[in-house]
Input
Amino acid sequence: DTLIINFVLKPKIETLKPIIISSNKIEKILGQKPFYIIDYELYNDNILLLALKNAKSSKKELILMNYIGDVICQRKVNKSSKKLFKDCTGNIQLLTNDSAFQINFTPSPKNIQLLYPITLKKFETILLPCLAVDSNKYFFYDNFYNKQGVVYYDIDNQAKKKKVITYIISKEKLNHLKNENNYLFEKYGYTQNEMISIKGKSLIAKSKNMAMTRHKESNISYDKEIFFTPINSFFSIIKNQVAIFNFVDSQIEFYNFHDSLINNIKIEFNKYPNWQKKIFIDGVTNKAYTHYRKNGISTISEIDINTACLISTIKIPNFQFVEKIKIRNGYIYFLYKNNLLMEYKKLYKMMM
Output
């Protein structure tokens, strides 16, 4: 007789962890030049810096350099200059305490110009909400419900018509916001007659005789500030599609330029520990990345835009709490200052 034994193998599906690559090929772009960098932006095929001549100087300059650190042009700017901002058209704006100036570079003669000054309030109203320009459309966002909701929309440059792409709303926080007084009463014991609402960081009381300690008032303001943090989302145009990273519903939504939803991919990477709520798009390679930080050390993970899975991770070693990470053409750029060595804040790059 023959004994026949059949083995049934059950497949086990496991999600592979992204490959972690550590690299020490970190370059200081300006070498030993003693500039203290306040801010920077990637500007076409160059880098634009807002910097001090040294850490003790109060004289600020705009410095245009190439990607290997050769200075092309520079000019002095007002002491009130605070930061650089790349607007939706790709132009760089210099922001001061009360104004915004468009920066323009002329190659012959080499010169940095400050054009079209507008008030900071006008900049925040018109330019700040604009996200991108593509296919004869301007793309915008607008917050509502105390930043517990955001709407993305576009305006056709020819028809001048506004059309909503999508809304993102945190229903949980919205319910708390609608029942704000009940929420604060449950935690702190004040009746609805004793308070109207929190505006900014101070509690506005109905009763002038109401005794309210600074400690409790501070606790309420802090509690609301933490609980009602703005919802998180990200907009980009990737491979001729509008990509909206919706972290409230944990999904990436893809739309065509007719504002129709063409794909929707669930994500998990926003739930992993140490996530920094940041997305970076390499405008040259069209690759997407996200950011994690543990014990001050940053890692950058590539997102497979077709599956929303992380496919590789690179660590920025030995540099704690780097600032203003940007990615272009396979390189990571960031600012870093070694406080222990009393160094200037400098710009670095690392190949991915």
Q: What stands out?
A: The two ends are 63 Å apart (CA to CA). Confidence is low (pLDDT under 50) at residues 5-16, 195-211. The longest helix spans residues 214-227. The chain is about 10% helix and 50% strand.
